[in-house]
Specification:
This protein is an alpha/beta fold. Among the domains are: about 45 residues, RecR Domain 1 (Helicase, Ruva Protein, domain 3, Orthogonal Bundle); about 90 residues, 3-Layer(aba) Sandwich (Dna Topoisomerase Vi A Subunit, Chain: A, domain 2). It is about 40% helix and about 15% strand. The chain has seven helices and six strands. Strands 4-3-5-6 form a four-stranded parallel beta sheet.
């Protein structure tokens, strides 16, 4: 393959979840497209990198020092939902049920990968809790070992401050058949049952 084509494949394969085969397919797609598409794609990537920054309050992606959520006076600033990534925030926002604010950690504790509290936005979270009138913290971590570890660590830091700490309910997803659900999920669903 010509060097310019190889270079595109190498760069695309650095993206998460993109192997060499997928990178090659994407490179061929870009090559077959109009030159204007390739220019627009390149320009939009550079534009994104130049324009986006992290919100100085919650660390969401933003074009200004404060994101659209933190600068919205309609949001309930006394409830803080802690998530791992901006993608997690977007998933919760899609529900349109949460009217509080967020704090994005930008990862989760993972000693095996060398991710410690210093690598996350935990120090900033504690400073925020100390300076704002936070009444409740919702831990919306992913339900894996690292997410559970992070939630437990944060609970130990936040609970002594007299702030209510909750986590998202866990259990059986809508439309699922019980026979195909794992034991841990069924156990969590039974523990988190609600009265009807």
């Amino acid at each position: 393959m010509p060097k310019p084509f190889k270079r595109v494949i190498e760069e695309l394969s650095k993206l998460p979840g993109i192997g060499e085969k997928t990178a090659s397919r994407l490179a061929f797609f870009i090559l077959k497209s109009d030159l204007s598409y390739a220019k627009n794609l390149a320009h939009s990537i550079v534009f994104m990198r130049e324009r986006l920054q992290l919100c100085s309050t919650c660390f969401n992606l933003s074009e200004s020092p404060h994101c659209y959520i933190c600068s919205n006076p309609q949001r309930d600033k006394s409830i803080l939902c802690i998530v791992e990534t901006p993608q997690d925030l977007a998933a919760i926002e899609k529900s349109r049920d949460f009217r509080g604010c967020y704090h994005i950690l930008h990862g989760r504790l993972s000693p095996l990968e060398g991710i410690t509290p210093k690598n996350l936005k935990i120090k900033e979270l504690l400073e925020r809790i100390g300076s704002e009138n936070i009444q409740e913290v919702i831990l919306a971590m992913n339900t894996n070992m690292e997410g559970e570890t992070t939630a437990l660590y944060l609970t130990k830091l936040i609970k002594p401050k007299g702030i209510k700490v909750t986590h998202l309910a866990q259990g059986i997803p809508m439309g699922a058949d019980l026979e195909y659900i794992d034991e841990v999920t069924i156990s969590k669903a039974l523990k988190n049952r609600i009265e009807v």
